[in-house]
Amino acid sequence: MESKRYIVILGAGESGTGAAVLAQKQGFEVFVSDAGPIAPQYIKELEDAGIAFEQLQHSVEKIESADEVIKSPGIPEKAPLVKKLREKGVSVVSEIEFASRYSKAKTICITGSNGKSTTTMLTYHILKNAGMNVGLAGNIGQSFARQVAQSEHDWYVLEISSFMLDDMYEFKADIAVLLNITPDHLDRYDYKLENYAESKIRIIQNQTEGDVFVYCADDPETIEILKKHPAVAVTYPFSIKEELEKGAYIKDNQIIIKLNTEQEFKMTITDLALQGKHNIYNSMASGIVAKVLELRNESVRESMGDFKNIEHRLEHAGRITGVEFINDSKATNVNSTWYALESMTTDVILILGGVDKGNDYSILKDLVRQKVRAIVCLGKDNKRIHEAFEEDVEVIVNAFSAQDAVEMSYHLAKKGETVLLSPACASFDLFKNYEDRGDQFKAAIKNL
């Protein structure tokens, strides 16, 4: 009799624990290893399921003897343990890749440097409201593996990061969406945008002529990488700059979606729940997916008009004596901050900073000159922000906690202005994650 195959899972967050639950259900011998501390709820879950695990260490010999390793997206390829596994020829895959082997569901996979969480949530909202049996997973919500193990759906909307794509090989998206490619996480890609673009375009790998690919025709990096890796699937571009024969475009202040000559979907831009140029792109992408699935126009319009955006993404966080506070803690790269500033209609006190991932701040300079009166740096090392903007704003100050940043910003702001937390950086220097940063920001506003 064949012995049970042995699977090791590196990282015991939502993704890793979900993978462990699914692997056990599929009859594998499972061992979970995390170099950091494991959150109490996941420890309890692993213990209750009788799954072996370790925290605060990696038992290298135990890990190297695995038939396959499922790796958390947060662990870089250059980590010594991953290098060792690769050298030994051990298969290393992502949780999404592993879970897809045991799922008959169809997938809508959304990636991009900016807007993927919003577009994933909006797409899920549209499909759910239309009565489809749909799950939400990937970089958001419950892990794909956990849902495949416990509550299989007909469709999944998956938010897919470049880190996940790097460890996906056989997986195929039935509908792939690529929103944009702008510099992000370049520290993981040898500081080369072309390496990062190669990672992003993996969203269309293994697609066939029966699948669908949705992309932004206005994004130069996307167009460039598609020359190198042309799509095999049926393609639907979207643009706010030109009318398209098929896909989505803007005309007379309306989004128009046309997949064939017979049928058109129209919706006035001002009726969209999500406002701002970047959100028109997000709404177009979600709208195309909805029409590919032949959902009724009335249902799609209703969902695109009543959608509530995710927490920590341009979230209204309070108004005190005429000063508006906006929590955009999820803006962990420069481009996200550019989009946030672009959508501001008042003068701004901007809270920036954190762990700098090789940021090029030059793309923010014009908007900072136009809209930002002062910058409050929230991070341990703010030197690069000072250097980047010292000639563009009169005031740049340093804060080392959310409370300090909020108090300083409030004193600097005038009535009718906006305090915008849109850091352009990761949060790991002072906070657990971007959610913690946003939560502390909101708590500090309540304390004013």
UniProtKB/TrEMBL annotation:
Gene Ontology annotations for the cellular component aspect, listed alphabetically: cytoplasm
Keyword field contains Ligase: yes
Keywords carried by this UniProt record: ATP-binding, Cell cycle, Cell division, Cell shape, Cell wall biogenesis/degradation, Cytoplasm, Ligase, Nucleotide-binding, Peptidoglycan synthesis
GO MF term list: ATP binding; UDP-N-acetylmuramoylalanine-D-glutamate ligase activity
Pathway annotation from the record: Cell wall biogenesis; peptidoglycan biosynthesis
GO terms (BP aspect): cell division; cell wall organization; peptidoglycan biosynthetic process; regulation of cell shape
Domain Mur ligase C-terminal: 312-425
Protein task: Cell wall formation. Catalyzes the addition of glutamate to the nucleotide precursor UDP-N-acetylmuramoyl-L-alanine (UMA).
Name used for this protein in its record: UDP-N-acetylmuramoylalanine--D-glutamate ligase
Species of the source: Arcticibacter pallidicorallinus
